[in-house]
Design goal:
The protein has about 70 residues and is of the alpha+beta class. The chain has two helices and two strands. A two-stranded antiparallel ribbon has the order 1-2. The protein is flat. The chain starts with about 20 loop residues before the first helix and ends with a strand.
Length: about 70
Amino acid sequence: MKTIPPFAYIPYGAGQCMCIGNEFARVEALVVIHCLLTEYEWRQLIPDEPISHDSMSKGLPINIIVRNSM
């Protein structure tokens, strides 16, 4: 088993010192992602630009538009 080095960053803790809000934070993040995917339309600013691993690491410019709810 790999040991955790001293002063290591563990976002929600581990073992007995685990944050009581970690499950709430996970669900809240999932709700935000759901809203972003269902209520908004995402388009590339440069439609013909190929998407690759390299372009994703440098950033991919997008335009986010609110979908019509009617």
